[in-house]
Amino acid sequence: MPPVTPNMPRVVLVEPDCDHARKIARVLVKEGFALTCARSGEEGLGTIEETMPDLVVACTELPGMSGGQLARRLRLDALTRNIPILMLTEDASPGVEREGLESGADAYISKSAHPDLMVLRMRALLREGPELLQVDEASRLRRSRIVIVNSPREDEDEEDVVEDVPETTLGELLWRDGHTVTSIERSDDLIEGGWLRGADSPDCLVLELGSGEEDLKFCRLLDARRQAVLEAGGIPFRTLGIVEASRFRRQSSGEFFEAGIDDLVPSDIALEALAMRIRTLAQRRMAQDEFRQQEIERQQNALTLEAARAKAEMAEALAQANMELARTNEQLLQAQSKLVQTAKMASLGELVAGIAHEINNPLAFTIAHADTVTRTLKRLQGVNASDEAMALTKKGMSRLESMKLGLQRIQNLVLSLRRFSRLDESSFQKVDVPAALDTALALLAHKLGPGIVVEKDLQAPAELVCQPAFLNQVVMNIISNAADALADMSADGDVVRGRIVIASRLENGRYEMSISDDGPGLPHELRTRIFDPFFTTKPVGTGTGLGLAIAYSVMEAHDGAIEVTDANLPGGHGIGACFRLSLPVRMTEEGPVATGRAA
Ligand SMILES: Nc1ncnc2c1ncn2[C@@H]1O[C@H](COP(=O)(O)OP(=O)(O)OP(=O)(O)O)[C@@H](O)[C@H]1O
Ligand SMILES: [Mg+2]
């Protein structure tokens, strides 16, 4: 026995007759098939499931499970469904053949047929390709298209003419079976034209064949046409030849298989058996067509899915870009409001400086004159005068004291205005931050009272080179504001209770300080306005609204920033406000030095 190689077609032969099995085996092995034999249907089933062959050749008459039952079992199993089955029978009666084909066999051959013919039939089955699906419901709904190609009429006189093919009757039978049947006369022109490919191409061509060279040539031309259809990605039609009975038995019909025919039957075959074979061939073509359709659909679905995925990715990228755009826009708006604020401060600074100067001069001599008037009135009291004059002098003195208080307030306001407008003039000095903070808290002690606890968490270096205004005005005003906010929260008469937390740290080249309280906090709508000069919520005469405006300018002069957020101190009374001050610093041997404009 020649060695089995992976490329050899693997065949399982199920044949109980040892002699016949040996005879067939000899031929098949010689022809290059890798053969496994089984003696019964049950044994055959086991071998098939184990070896998964390319083809099964089974006898119809088997002990126990019949060939038809075996074929049915194979067709029921998804794994073995696509293995082609060739049935062998001793009995050529159409009933047996019909049973074999109906059970799912693909082709049928008599045991008495020449072994070469069997080999040719096997090769034709293997040629059909692996995607042989059972016809599903969709395919069953479509009528198969059968074309009967009759020999040309002028051949009628010739010797080999097939006279006994009952063409009309076959057509009728197929038509009753539910096929679409067309009967045409053979001519070489048939090969041309588009009818053999495309959506309406026939499933099976039934060829009436004589013995002339013309018939073989026609078969070859048809086969070439099938190849072309295959190469163009289509499913080629099947061909079945009806050959004159005596020629079929003379075994010279093998050349038709070589010319590409799929199945060959003798002209004296029972009509029913012939119809059965045609149906089997047509159904296999339809099944392949269906499979290809499904494959195209699958590919289209995959493409649609891919397109949808790409679309989703694009949408995601777009959303991402939109988010970045929104973020940039937000930053732009912030930068813009900062610019507006800076410009506002600059122009206000000039205006305020002018007003302060104008007020300061008359204020200076008014205060000086007020002092002179006070001294004059005191001297008048020493002079012996009438009671009435004494009473008037006293009244004048008391009004003068009130005037002095008013003048004092004007003087303080002018001082604030001058500080606000002349920040650039103050120089940078080394400041001991904790000590400066203690001084500020001592100055504010009256405002803080006994109920307000001040906590300090100072982690930044103690010494900082900056404008003293940073601590004297900015920090002091923020602490003073926090004390006011806490006082607003407490009920009348109660001791003000609250907490102020001052924290500092050096981070990423910035000196950061935060001052938080647990007061009522700042509503969002006020946050953009509190840095405006003269913005205050305090009663008239209590606040000037300049504290945070000055703070903003001081921070500007340091190239730093001031912002307000919710404080949310743990265990605090209210949400509270948190003012964050951030100064860029460069580190020197002496410690951090603020890198402001004036530095
Ligand atoms: N810690 C805080 N909690 C609640 N509101 C605050 C706080 N700090 C400031 N504010 C609000 O910001 C406003 C502006 O403060 P700013 O210091 O500029 O002016 P002022 O304190 O009203 O007056 P001035 O400081 O000139 O005496 C205040 O009137 C107050 O409404
Ligand atoms: Mg204030």
From TrEMBL:
Residues 293-338 form a coiled coil. It catalyses: ATP + protein L-histidine = ADP + protein N-phospho-L-histidine. It is an enzyme of class 2 (transferase). InterPro entries: CheY-like_superfamily, HATPase_C_sf, HATPase_dom, His_kinase_dom, HisK_dim/P_dom, HisK_dim/P_sf, Sig_transdc_His_kin-like_C, Sig_transdc_resp-reg_receiver. Its EC number is 2.7.13.3. Keywords: Coiled coil, Phosphoprotein. Residues 10-126 form the Response regulatory domain. Residues 354-587 form the Histidine kinase domain. One of its GO terms (molecular function) is phosphorelay sensor kinase activity. CDD domains: HisKA. PROSITE patterns: HIS_KIN (PS50109), RESPONSE_REGULATORY (PS50110). The keyword DNA-binding does not apply. PANTHER family: SENSOR HISTIDINE KINASE (PTHR43065), TWO-COMPONENT SENSOR PPRA (PTHR43065:SF42). This is histidine kinase.
